[in-house]
UniProtKB/TrEMBL annotation:
Keywords recorded for this protein, A-Z: Activator, DNA damage, DNA repair, DNA-binding, Metal-binding, Methyltransferase, Transcription, Transcription regulation, Transferase, Zinc
Pfam families: Ada_Zn_binding, AlkA_N, HhH-GPD, HTH_18
Gene Ontology cellular-component annotations: cytoplasm; protein-DNA complex
Key word DNA repair present: yes
GO function terms (MF aspect): alkylated DNA binding; DNA-3-methyladenine glycosylase activity; DNA-7-methylguanine glycosylase activity; DNA-binding transcription factor activity; methyltransferase activity; sequence-specific DNA binding; zinc ion binding
CDD domains on file: ENDO3c (cd00056)
GO biological process, alphabetically ordered: base-excision repair, AP site formation; DNA alkylation repair; methylation
CC cofactor: Zn(2+)
Catalytic activity: Hydrolysis of alkylated DNA, releasing 3-methyladenine, 3-methylguanine, 7-methylguanine and 7-methyladenine
Protein's recorded name: DNA-3-methyladenine glycosylase II
Domain annotation HTH araC/xylS-type: ranges: 94-192
Enzyme class of the recorded protein, top EC level: hydrolase
PANTHER family: DNA-3-METHYLADENINE GLYCOSYLASE, DNA-3-METHYLADENINE GLYCOSYLASE 2
Length: 504
């Protein structure tokens, strides 16, 4: 495959410079394959650089494996952050990739996937090969095999459980697929497991620097729900369901300043492990490309100094869409602290009690839509209007009028949500930003946002801010985070009058 087939916005010269300098900013944006060894690597691989004439560049691990290369055992391509450039926007490939991550191909066929993105299977395959260098099935299989390789390398899980955790229903098929991709049998990676046997796994989750983990923890700590989450200065912990077999996770910085987070995970159901890790990566925005984001936003005079001050600011996602939606409604017309208090009361009154808490302080699950669809929340201080709105959201989720599928276009998501009583544009965009991690969500009506964007003490109108933010597409949600954060970095001003909607 020639350099012209990189299928990426990166040109061969840029890839070559990044490879020779081992530039971590390009980790996961392309892969380096060496014809003399038959191996493909990350651009940060510590091995001696190969001769240029033996090097080929690929936009994805799946493309390299489709071309016959096997993953490097030294730099471990499974640790590379994802490349969200392919998932940006609402085009067919972006939507299909999001559906693959959501598990559509775990049980369904290529025809099922193509049907959901409104194209034929042959056209979808052609689009994938043209843009990613590999058909959808290969992308799906490579994703599963790389996750299996990480589990085999870093944990002591039995091979049978590794097969289940990586989405294979048959151990025989897993062994065959793994041997074909890696040229070795799965058990050959188990000779020296890095962690002792036990219920808690430790996995390394890579990211592209810079990454402001402290800012993410600060954002989540101010909104954490006692009983469900525990957030301190160094880590985020959470319990997740089902209640009769709960799991838990804890995320902290990887030691020695490596470009990775340390995930401690207890997941009783192996088949849910890959979806859980995928959700964590989305929640902590580990696959973002800060170079691309800064390149688009730094042209604006208000954002330029903010990007210089906090170049690694990321988009804080939420674990559960319904939880985020309820909290967004609670946050209308009240402060973040007040919204957290109301949400905590809902958890204590209606949350699901975990009979055997997996860790101290993690003993409840957020109530389900079925529970809140008929709950009277006025008794815990929620206004009548907001109580009705929350019940309306729960019922709309149950009957399918709204959902949290992240492959849907932003405009379609917002339109469906604002059709619900009590949901305005601000709330819908905030939910899209937190629950879908949509990079272009933009709650323009937010008062603090309109003040921060003015940068002269005045307050922009929603229309003026919307017009200004057109230049920030497709990264408007990151601009929101920078503007919100800028207000936290200055001394507090006198408390303003109550306004229509604020951050939840």
């Amino acid at each position: 495959m020639s350099d012209a087939q990189i299928h990426s916005s990166l040109d061969p010269q840029t890839c070559e410079q990044a490879r020779l300098s081992r530039d971590a900013r390009f980790d996961g944006l392309f892969f380096v394959a060496v014809t003399s060894t038959g191996i493909y690597c990350r651009p940060v691989c510590p091995a001696r650089a190969s001769k240029r004439e033996n090097v080929r560049y690929y936009a994805s691990a799946a493309a390299a494996e489709t071309a016959g290369f096997r993953p490097c055992l030294r730099c471990r391509p499974e640790l590379a952050p994802g490349n969200l450039v392919w998932q940006r926007g609402d085009h067919v490939v972006a939507r299909a990739l999001k559906l693959i991550e959501a598990g559509v191909l775990d049980e369904g066929s290529l025809d099922d996937l193509a049907r959901q993105v409104d194209v034929g299977s042959r056209q979808l395959r052609r689009l994938f090969v043209d843009r990613l260098g590999a058909p959808p099935i290969n992308v799906h299989t490579t994703r599963r095999l790389l996750f299996a390789k990480q589990l085999l390398t870093e944990t002591s899980m039995p091979v049978t459980e590794v097969a289940m955790a990586s989405g294979f229903r048959s151990l025989r098929r897993f062994n065959a697929a793994f041997a074909q991709a890696n040229r070795i049998a799965p058990r050959e990676l188990r000779r020296h497991p890095r962690t002792p046997p036990g219920d808690t796994l430790v996995l390394r989750l890579g990211y592209r620097p810079p990454y402001d983990f402290d800012a993410l923890l600060t954002f989540l700590r101010g909104r954490s729900l006692p009983g469900i989450e525990h957030v301190d200065e160094h880590s985020y912990a959470r319990v997740f369901g089902p209640a009769d077999a709960p799991g838990w996770l804890r995320l902290s910085a990887w030691p020695n300043a490596e470009h990775a987070l340390k995930l401690e995970l207890h997941c009783p159901q192996p088949a849910q492990m890959l979806p859980v890790v995928t959700r964590i990566r989305r929640m902590f925005d580990l696959d973002a490309d800060p170079q691309a984001i800064a390149g688009s936003l730094c042209t604006h005079p208000v954002l330029r100094p903010l990007l210089r001050k906090r170049p690694g600011l990321r988009l804080p996602g939420g674990w559960d869409g319904f939880e985020i939606a309820v909290r967004a409604v609670l946050g209308q017309q009240v402060s973040v602290a007040a919204a957290r208090t109301l949400a905590s009361r809902i958890v204590q009154r209606h949350g699901i009690v975990v009979p055997n808490p997996p860790r101290p302080g993690l003993e409840r699950l957020f109530p389900s839509p079925e529970t809140l669809a008929d709950a009277d929340l006025r008794e815990i201080g929620v206004t009548t209007a907001r109580s009705e709105t929350i019940r309306g959201i729960a019922r709309a989720l149950l009957d399918g009028r709204v959902d949290f599928r992240n492959d849907q276009p932003l405009d379609a998501f917002v339109a469906r949500w604002v059709a619900l009583p009590g949901i305005g544009e601000w709330t819908a965009h905030y939910v899209a930003m937190r629950a879908l991690s949509h990079p272009d969500a933009f709650p323009a009506a937010d008062l603090i946002l309109r003040r921060a964007a003015a940068d002269d003490g005045s307050t922009l109108s929603t229309k003026a801010l919307d017009h200004m933010a057109e230049a920030w597409r497709p990264w408007r949600a990151y601009a929101v985070m920078h503007l919100w954060r800028s207000t936290a970095d200055v001394p507090p001003a006198p408390r303003p009058k109550r306004h229509k909607e604020v951050r939840a």
